[in-house]
Specification:
By secondary structure, the protein is mainly alpha-helical. It has helices at 5-14, 43-49, 75-87, 100-133, and strands at 31-32, 41-42, 55-58, 71-74. Bound molecules: zinc ion.
């Protein structure tokens, strides 16, 4: 029950006001519920405020399969990857114990999670650009092909 993604999201949301965003960057994801009232900060800015590095070394393809394959990333991104892994029911997949098929599965899973993270980042960037520059921030471009 502890790893239930719906319960985790509801618990996290209950500790934050509706529409909460980081007071520094405006990000609405990976927020740290404040124990002492405002400001609400994202995980990266909360770590900066506390004097802790806002970077983590991520083992996106799993330490158990690719221990030396690491990515230096914002701590919030690393946590988001772990959240997605739990939300997708991938947190408790069997340890490959060297099995090449399962090791490759860990690699593909890490790649897919990075792709999902980038897709989410692009959507946040688009929202930021639209807020900053208005609906006309993007002037044209090729029309999407009709398939
Ligand atoms: Zn922030």
């Amino acid at each position: 029950m502890r790893d239930d993604p719906v319960l985790r999201a509801a618990t996290r949301a209950a500790r934050l006001p509706i529409g909460a965003a980081c007071a520094v960057c405006g990000r609405m994801a990976a927020l740290v519920p404040s124990r002492n009232g405002p400001p609400i900060l994202c995980q990266d800015h909360d770590r900066q405020r506390r004097g802790v590095s806002d970077r983590d070394i991520g083992h996106v393809a799993r330490r158990r399969s690719f221990g030396s394959l690491t990515v230096l990333m914002p701590a919030s991104a690393n946590e988001r990857i772990e959240d997605m892994r739990r939300d997708l029911g991938l947190a408790d997949t069997p340890d490959p114990l060297g099995d090449p098929l399962l090791v490759h599965a860990d690699y593909l899973e890490g790649r897919a999670l990075i792709d999902l993270l980038f897709a989410d980042h692009l959507r946040q960037l688009e929202a930021h650009l639209r807020t900053t520059f208005g609906d006309r921030y993007f002037e044209g471009g090729p029309e999407a092909p009709i398939v």
